[in-house]
Aspartate aminotransferase family protein
Amino acid sequence: TSGQKSELEARAAAMLETERELFAERRPRTAAAHAQSGPGFFDGVPQHWMLDWPSPFPPIIETAAGVTLTDIDGNRLTDLCLGDTGAMFGHGPEPVLRALANAGTRGLTTMLPSSDAHSVGKLLAERFGLPQWQLAATASDANRFAIRVARAVTGGAKLLVFDGCYHGAVDDTLVDLVDGRTVSRRNLLGQVRDLGELTVSIPFNDEAALASALAANDIACVLAEPVMTNCGMILPDPGFHDVLRRLTRAAGTLLLIDETHTISTGPGGYSRKHGLEPDLMVMGKPIGGGIPVSVWGMSEAVAESLHVVRREQSGHGHSGIGTTLSGSAIQLACLRACLEEVMTDAAYETMNARADRIEAGFKAAIAANGLEWTVSRVGARLEVVFSPHTVRNAVEARLAASDTIEQALHLSMLNLGYLLTPFHNMVLVSPALTAGEADGLVEAFAAVLGRLVKGKD
Ligand code: PMP
């Protein structure tokens, strides 16, 4: 209820104060490092948003191995953030480290296919079902290229996304649905065009809105995460994906599935487990064990149309697809190591077993503290949602969310030695997490909930 929520928020705000002090007390060297000023990084950090974490300043990491982070003050954290999925299989998986070590003789980048290329292409096709693949450096890039191909082969201009989506630094997708209108996202910097001209945003799980948006037959592509993971966690209603596929096919609209986060589901992602049959697919983040590489795949029909469009072009180059370091020897070597030896059935079995344990433990702690919260899950990814029922769209997700409670949870857990994903209540489980560490996480979560509800330990 809203009464419960405002009481919790008041206590969370008080908790945040003390947790911030505790965080800083334990990090004199980190504080001193951040206090240095002068030329260097803008805002003192390599990415400006690193300052947005709930701690008074970000920890500075000395080492990351498996699920253990050690900061420059010697504090150790068990990592359930895992670089927001970039390190989903643990920090520095052994086969990937070996591939990197071999790079000394095999080179890093040549602008030519390496001897791993053929095998990697086949591995991608076998694992993810789509027959034709290309590489990029980030999931953002891969989405941009896949959208470009969708427009090129359909001749359509418009893109459809779901309200609350995030697909990376891709301007076409950085929109919000406000009072029924699609507008540029509030915090987006430096975009002077009205993004609502070519992008349509509709609520997830809304079959009527989908049918109506597709009816004009001017949408080149629907870009969707199969489970929305960037606005709390929004699960698809039973049957929603069937409708999405049926309606997109009927409208001649391509379906681009972004598996960057839902690769937590299993070895072939959510699409393979649930038989989604996308025309295009994107994956990034953990696919190369943490080095900058992403992959995007096409159906035979899309690939054939792309050949036709390419033949009609004059000359070569500047297609708007690809970057110099994409498809490099080092990407291919790490991808191969990851696909063959890291993203294995056994790794996913361990991840799912640990996630089962955490899900059960979190639900028990929530119930024991009389909280009206749910735990949503897609394989090794769990999200605590401050709502008595699972949320169905971004409006419900935003209503359930609370920055203050989320931040208090995050920082209290961090001070107990467990790093959750910031800007979420998200727990990602790596195969390197032991059962004991999973139990420790549940214990810490229960202790923090106790403090949040009763105001003491
Ligand atoms: N797709 C999804 C679903 C994401 O969550 C993200 C990043 N959070 C991206 C794409 C973009 O990934 P990157 O920042 O590595 O380009």
In short: The two ends are 23 Å apart (CA to CA).
